[in-house]
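Entry 14. Ran structure prediction on the chain below.
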Amino acid sequence: MINKLKEMYKLYAYQQADAKWAHERQATAATPAEIAKRYYDAHYSDWQVRPNTFLYEMQDGNELDDAPFVLLRTLLKTNPKATHTIIINKDSLKKAYKVLAFWELTADPRIKVVDRFTEAHMRTLLTAETVITNAMIFSDIFVKRGRQRFVNTWHGTPWKKMGYAMPGGVMGSWNVIRTLMMTDLLVMPNTYTAKIFNRDYRLAGLYQGKISTFGYPRNDVFFEKLSERQLTTLENAYRNGQPTILYAPTWAGDASSAGDATAELTKYLHTLVTLAQHFPTYTIRFKPHSYFTEAINADARFAPFLVDDAWGTNVLLAHTDILITDYSSLFFDFLVTGRPVLFYDTQIDYDTTRGKYFEVNELPGPFTQQLTELITHIEDIESIKAQYADQYAKFVTRFVHDDDGSAARRVTEVMSQMTSRNQHGQLVVNGEDFSDATFNLRDQIADLAATYDTSLAIYEAHLLDNWYGFQFFQNIDATMPNTRIFVNKQLSNLPLTLNEAMQQGHRFLGNVTFAVALIPQDDFSSHQQALITTVNTVITVTNTERDAWLDHLGFTKIVTHANFVVWSHDENFDSTTLSPLFMAIQ
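Output, structure tokens:
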């Protein structure tokens, strides 16, 4: 009796926390992103997709750089009739126009810059024929339309662990996976990165789009001939007439904000000042991770070491003599130059916070956590180059062998031939109450994953940091490492119209259509309304409201097996094909 009362109290506490969570979410419903999403959804079917139009979004609208910008510059030459819209956060507009000015593109009538989360942004997002990004895209707004083509170039070769391989990867990966499921062309810097994506985002068995591994567009700049004006600018303002050392550390975190970085910034500043004191014949420059930019720009002590964002990261690398980094993917790009790279780590617990794919003794340069040793490496740089020549050559062959200055042209040729396509999955299990103590299919799902390619569709309200959420993650861990997780972040649990359900379902599943959905819950919800619109066959228990919804969507009741009923869009569906699934769940 006492245990039962404890469980009842825990459930009550969860319900109170859930209500508080919903209230807080309602309070944020007026953010620019939420307002934009409502506009986007309301007009989803209003406008036609416009041929030969391109939309670009880089690093959440904070940058105009990386592979998408190189693709834009290439398309201006190879497809002169196309138009291009660049999405930029309001705070980054000045920087974006400086980038365009550096490349002499400010007056090009084919290029338009649009503020992020405005109506103009949403209209272009709905009508652009080709959407190009280097990461995730537009929060959780974008749902690729039928005639749209989606290109994802990502943003580098990983040394840091990614996806489900990193701590907290279950929830840290949901929007990446959703985005990748809508991707028609995934541009990878090399086959090593493609293999990691397939394994650690669990794309195998679900992703059916194209994957490009024949060079990275952003590395074309190492072979690009800049104008005399650009070269003079870089020589005077970046190199200062001397050989240049670039210090470019990354960030060890796994989310999208660096939080309180005071201690880390203090380490950076100490490193820069010490290097400047020891090496007066070098120009010392600093390229921090973008999450630190605001804090560093506000600190005048960093000013002598900072560089103009308008030049682009790889343009800087092309004019750098020695690169110092820790775990940044920039060092892979820098290998194209053949110049030395030194590894200096200030994150003592990095393996705990994020993890890495290979050990420091494999690197193409020395690794140290001591500033004095770093200084010695710079003093003996010619000896370091000779000592690491073999490992450097192996890294070049493995990671940048195909970078020859023509990668962007090859990618745009593939883009011109690709068509929009959606992914098709095998089995999705509704994990809506996956944390419920009565949900007893945890072990069976692990068994199912041995036979079927299995995904879980979960609802964010059940991921609160409390007793209920704790059970949820215990159950999730029991299904690992074979399942992948899709998260429904919609706010309301009110009944949905057909259009609302279809929009929500395609949004949180990244347009994936599943052959079979397993819905073992007794209760019906709007989350299930959305999920059912994305599948061809449903295995569930009887519920009057759910039965009516299935009937409304044109499903036919095929057969009953034990406690489960099979519904399908195909009246002639052969339910015997589900025998292994029935064996696993009965």
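Residues 254-258 have pLDDT under 50 and may be disordered. Will compare against last week's run tomorrow.
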